[in-house]
Amino acid sequence: MASAWRETGARVGLAALALLAFSGTQSPARAEQGVVIARDMDLNSLDPARAFCDTCQIYLSAVYARLVDLDGDGRTIVPMLAESWQSDPAQTEFTFHLRKDAVFSDGSPVQAKDVVWSLSRLQHITAGAGYLLAGIETIEAVDDQTVAIRLKDPNSELLGLLSAPYAGILNSDLVAEHGGLADETADTADTAEAWLMENSAGAGPFVLSSYLPGESLRLTRNETYWGDKPQIEGATLLQMKESASQLQLVQSGGADIAMQVDALTASQISGDAVSVSFMPSQALVYLALSPGAKGNEVPLNAKVREGISHALDYDALIDLTVEGKGRRLASPVPLDFPGGSGLEPPAYDPALARKLLDEGGAPAEFTLHAAFPNVRQYGVDFTVMMQKVQMDLGAVGIKLDLEPLEFPIWRERANGEGIPLTAVFFVPDFYGSSQYFNYFGMFDGTTWYKRAGGASDPSLTDSAGPEILKQALGTSGAESEAAFAQLSALMAQDRIILPIVAPDTILVTTPALKGARISACCNLVLKDLHWEK
Question: Is 12 exposed, middle or buried (0-12, 13-18, 19+ CB in 10 A)?
């Protein structure tokens, strides 16, 4: 499920027009006014145990409080429902102490039984992000305010996993009344989703007001919220597919935030009618090489892969695809994740590229097949990007044969006979670096080890990787970060994954709206929004 999502005209009807009364087209000077957000919503569910999407992150983190949160610096775990916690040195046993003042939106207290029930339900329902908690052996309520979690194997990233919006805590008594289950039968017998599509049962700063699939999702402030209450009275997410239409709605006063305006459109905005913010994101657009793919004319050995990495004009690709609004990475791991910084990306050097290709035994000219999903994702038009890659590789004697595919066909091909060179995208499911090695690492069981043909080419295997990963997860602090840095270096050296760009997130907002930020755990953080006074 995780890998499927990672790679995964404006409509304004009567319901949308009615929302204008909620947002107002007048000046947003009132501090209590609600916020309207225009975006192409990809909601698959409002049930924390079944939801899995970008918009899901916004909704769940606004409505369902978790044990811990990710601070505004993007890398520090801070208290939420748990006011404190401890772990053993082996990183296998964690104890969480709950706040005594936290309550659900109906006023009932948040207790340890709710935490145990919610996390157990997420574990047992396979339709969503339950895989995040697969490493948990037991979850127990020590008393009403204390929860003990024991892991099957050491995992220093448990806190990052628990900061994910899918780990939101539900009012267990209320959801159970409406068909919720948290035992081994939950996957097939739990029937609470229908109720959760129309109601919420969380302890977050907002509550669900209404949801019209394909049109709007409206939240109102939770007046019983135990933390600092939001300054806005609510937020409405308005379905709008096209970038230009989102921008026009903000410019006309019908919305306060446009979340998916592309970089080219944003670069052409002038004047002070709207504000444009470019924020670093954890999204990644990358190329991938498959030495084991059927139909390779030339062996994609280590020297050839390194040569290809130096043949790409990365800066020009970033300028072309996102108007320069993005960051380069040396490995798939984001710069602000453990182990993600400190590595130098490959330099654009056609002469060096050709030298390495020669050393790898590649002929002066050869053809490389490149099938890729025909999508526009995170602001990047993949067809345009691949045409530029084709030009760059052509300059060193590699004729790139481009084949755009519908996404399901691309995935079937990549997971089947393999694709010599492809392009795709990735976004993390939680704050933590282990997911990158478990997805991109060259060892048995990972997605890209299989796609690269690792089973038939032992030279691809990073034999030390699994042990380094155990060290990273079995320690904490600087020792863990150093191990993750080693893993990042291994992935960079493999030259199987060639990061092109981590595109910035672009937010176009009404100038008086402040506090908009993107979080690695939660996407747009609604509780921080406020009006300039």
Answer: middle
Identify the CA nearest to 469 among candidates 168, 67, 76, 154.
154
Distance CA 37, CA 49 (A): 25
CB 421 within 8 A of CB 370: yes
Hey, CA dihedral for 249, 250, 254, 260, is it positive or negative?
Answer: positive
Mean pLDDT of 359-380: 96
Do 166 and 230 fall into the same domain?
A: yes
Q: Which residues pair with 222 in a beta bridge?
A: none
C-alpha 182/C-alpha 114 separation (Å) is 10
Residues 191 and 335 in one domain: no
DSSP β-bridge partners for residue 149: 94, 139
d(CA 524, CA 261): 15
Closest alpha carbon to 282 in 3, 35, 518: 518
| pLDDT above 50 (res 5) | no
> In which domain, by residue range, is 190 found?
2-264+506-531
The two beta strands, 398-405 and 82-87, are: unpaired
**Residues with Cβ < 8 Å from 88, sequence gap 6 or more?**
none
pLDDT of 33: 60
Count of domains in the chain?
2
| Mean pLDDT over each residue of the chain, to the nearest integer | 93
The b/e string for 37-53 (b: 16+ C-beta within 10 A; e otherwise) is bbbbbebbbbbbbbbbb
Q: How far apart are CA 532 and CA 529, in angstroms?
A: 10
What is the domain-level CATH number for residue 397? 3.10.105.10
Say whether both 199 and 342 belong to one domain. Answer: no
pTM: 0.90
Are residues 472 and 515 located together in one domain of the fold?
A: no
Q: How far is CA 256 from the centre of its chain?
A: 23
Answer positive or negative: Cα dihedral of 56, 60, 61, 63.
Answer: positive
What is the predicted pLDDT for the residue at 94?
98
Q: Give helix 302-311 / helix 382-394 axis angle, nearest 10°.
A: 110
CATH number at residue 43: 3.40.190.10
Please tell me the distance from the alpha carbon of residue 376 to that of residue 207, in angstroms, as a whole number. Answer: 33
**In terms of domains, do 445 and 323 share one?**
yes
- Nearest one of 428, 418, 459, 430 to 442, comparing CA atoms: 459
The rounded distance, in Å, linking the Cα atoms of 361 and 12 is 58
**Helix ranges restricted to H, 323-431:** 350-359, 382-394, 407-415
For residue 313, what are its two tokens? 């004009």
Q: Domain for residue 276, yes or no?
A: no
Tokens of 65: 């409080």
Q: Are 79 and 162 in contact (CB under 8 A)?
A: no
State phi, psi for 334 to the nearest 5 degrees.
Answer: -60, 155
Give the per-residue pLDDT at 219: 98
Q: Are residues 464 and 332 located together in one domain of the fold?
A: yes
